[in-house]
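Is this the right way to post structure tokens for a design question? Let me know if I should format differently. Anyway, here goes:
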């Protein structure tokens, strides 16, 4: 049996443990080869190879429903469900998604990308199944990191009482992207490492190994009962049991035999059950076993040395510019406190935390909590800087409105990964932040067009009042060195880069670069457009805008946000409200649709929002 011959899980049902073990080995080397070649998530999938095989072995997928949380660990699932042939297209434009996608395969029962959704969705499947009087199984697979999200607890609370038949697999590798945090994570560890329980397990294992076969199976049952009784006396999983969810485990997540046995057993138990499965993140690749944090995701690399295949950019990432800037501010002002939702590294707050550990708090994958927690900190006189990716901040919309803005609290929101993010695709594109932030009363929204402006804006944000958001894309600074001095932004105004006439080009953030290209092309065609760095999406310096509208009859806006409710909409409102009804307005931005994965520059071309396409559309319109 070879991986390439597996078109569906039917092809390995009934295989021996030896065959499945060989399959596991082949899967690992396929995943390592793919990520080494093209990049992607790595350590999480390596950790769930046996678990995924066991799930598809025991359950009759896709009629039996698997709901994977996040989906970054689902490469094994993809390989086992007929996608081996296309696996080398993973995360590329037109290729397989790096996450779960219903339109990609009937085996992807539920889409994923953001954390902590699986138990809620699985409960929905279970209730709908009962309503339709069907009898299929429903399984949620959730990591211990994703379990720190409030929605997971809300779902447990609901599942425990609604009593639907469903299985929750808690894939416990003690890691979120970085080591997991929080009281619940400690609780899970206590369950696994309880010395009395573990001693008992070891003793039982030792005795059982010495028993001959026929007697063994009898005594095994007896000991299994003793073990269960001891377990409940020591109360591992008590938390779940008290909620009404039967707890099983901890189970060795790399022991296929044990996994298959427990899944077979739990599958027929009525009501909600949870199995705590212990896995090793990065299993099978020494480098990743040693440092699963580093190998959560990777750029293309050499599998022997672990070194990246391409040399990285020689300018700092915008994430690092933010981190360094906040560090310099936090050194001077002890009231500044950075908050991350399990993304210290991704957000740049790790740079602050290394030197000033007391001025960064990781709340776990808990964006809603992060924002309201920040609101409390602000009431207490601190200056919270909540660094959350644009798309993950969507989670905390009500908290931004109700807990921060309504009370006009000074909370700084730092939205990295605004705009298109590339290979992670639609779940991770930051396509909506200008729309969702712009409608919040009292919110200041800044979008830097380069690294110096980013630094200036962070300085300004700390000194402002009320809620402030700064949004910038995934990417790097234009230059290796920042300007020697900070130029604090004193007024909430746009900046004219070039004064021309007739055509007004208004660029938001790093999209200004595309409009510079547009301006160059237009100039070559004898036009002299005015080019403006918008800087503030809210508030708009209305008087200055009116002056520009008086001298330009064509207005062009460009943003890497949806055209629905974004900056272009604000300009359309202003033109209409102020009676500039004969002006020509061309709005460029992301469509009112979900944009697929791909190289950002290719996606811009596809969407017609690169400098050249915009110049062409302007000429057509003239
Ligand atoms: C709402 C949300 N916030 C943050 C993230 C970023 N993120 C992706 S995977 C991950 C860690 C998940 O840990 P866990 O569930 O334990 O899975 P593991 O990778 O350890 O298997 C995080 C924080 C996300 N996907 N969704």
């Amino acid at each position: 049996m070879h991986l390439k011959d597996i078109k569906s899980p039917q092809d390995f049902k009934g295989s021996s443990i030896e065959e499945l073990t060989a399959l596991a080995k082949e899967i690992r080397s396929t995943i390592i080869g793919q990520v080494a070649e093209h990049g992607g998530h790595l350590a999480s999938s390596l950790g769930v190879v046996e678990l995924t095989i066991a799930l598809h072995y025991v359950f009759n997928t896709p009629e039996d429903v698997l709901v994977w949380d996040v989906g970054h660990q689902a490469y094994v699932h993809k390989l086992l469900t007929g996608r081996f042939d296309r696996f080398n297209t993973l995360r590329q434009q037109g290729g397989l998604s790096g996450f779960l996608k219903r339109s990609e395969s009937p085996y992807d029962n539920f889409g994923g990308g953001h954390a902590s959704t699986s138990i809620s969705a699985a409960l929905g499947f279970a209730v709908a199944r009962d309503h339709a009087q069907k009898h299929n199984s429903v399984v949620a697979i959730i990591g211990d990191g994703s379990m720190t999200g409030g929605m997971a607890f809300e779902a447990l609370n609901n599942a425990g009482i609604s009593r639907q038949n469903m299985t929750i697999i808690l894939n416990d590798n003690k890691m979120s992207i970085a080591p997991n945090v929080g009281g619940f994570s400690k609780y899970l560890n206590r369950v696994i490492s309880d010395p009395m329980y573990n001693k008992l397990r070891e003793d039982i294992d030792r005795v059982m190994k010495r028993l001959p076969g026929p007697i063994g199976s009898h005594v095994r049952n007896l000991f299994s009962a003793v073990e269960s009784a001891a377990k409940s006396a020591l109360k591992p999983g008590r938390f779940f049991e008290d909620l009404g969810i039967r707890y099983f485990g901890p189970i060795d997540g790399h022991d296929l035999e044990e996994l298959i046995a427990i899944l077979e057993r739990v599958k027929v138990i009525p009501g909600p059950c949870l199995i705590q499965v212990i896995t090793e993140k990065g299993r099978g690749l020494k480098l990743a076993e040693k440092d699963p944090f580093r190998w959560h995701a990777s750029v293309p690399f050499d599998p022997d040395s672990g070194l990246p295949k391409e040399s990285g950019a020689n300018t700092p990432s915008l994430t690092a510019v933010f981190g360094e800037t906040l560090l310099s501010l936090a050194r001077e002002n002890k009231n500044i406190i950075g908050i991350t939702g399990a993304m210290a590294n991704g957000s740049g707050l790790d740079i602050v935390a290394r030197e000033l550990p007391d001025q960064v708090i990781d709340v776990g994958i808990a964006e809603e909590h992060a924002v309201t927690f920040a609101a409390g900190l602000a009431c207490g006189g601190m200056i919270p800087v909540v660094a959350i990716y644009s798309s993950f901040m969507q989670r905390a919309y009500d908290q931004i409105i109700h807990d921060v803005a309504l009370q006009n609290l000074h909370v700084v929101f730092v939205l990295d990964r605004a705009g298109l993010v590339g290979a992670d695709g639609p779940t991770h594109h930051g396509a909506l932040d200008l729309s969702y932030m712009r409608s919040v009363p009292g919110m200041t929204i800044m979008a830097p067009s380069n690294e110096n402006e980013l630094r200036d804006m962070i300085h300004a944000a700390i000194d402002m009042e009320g809620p402030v958001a700064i949004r910038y894309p995934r990417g790097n600074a234009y230059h290796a060195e920042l300007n020697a001095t900070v130029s604090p932004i004193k007024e909430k105004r746009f900046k004219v880069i070039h004064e021309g006439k007739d055509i007004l080009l208004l660029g938001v953030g790093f999209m200004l670069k595309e409009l510079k290209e547009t301006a160059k092309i237009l100039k070559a065609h004898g036009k002299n457009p005015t080019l403006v760095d918008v800087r503030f999406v809210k508030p708009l310096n209305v008087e200055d805008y009116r002056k520009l509208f008086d001298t330009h009859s064509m207005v062009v806006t460009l943003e890497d946000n949806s055209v629905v409710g974004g900056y272009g909409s604000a300009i359309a409102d202003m033109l209409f409200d102020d009676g500039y009804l004969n002006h020509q307005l061309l709005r460029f931005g992301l469509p009112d649709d979900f944009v697929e994965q791909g190289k950002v520059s290719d996606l811009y071309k596809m969407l017609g929002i690169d400098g050249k396409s915009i110049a062409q559309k302007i000429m057509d319109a003239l």
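Format looks fine. Someone answered above. Worth noting: The pocket of thiamine diphosphate is lined by residues 44, 69-70, 72-73, 114-115, 143-146, 171, 173, 175-177, 281, 341-343, 365, 367, 392, 395 (CB under 6 Å). The radius of gyration is 27 Å.
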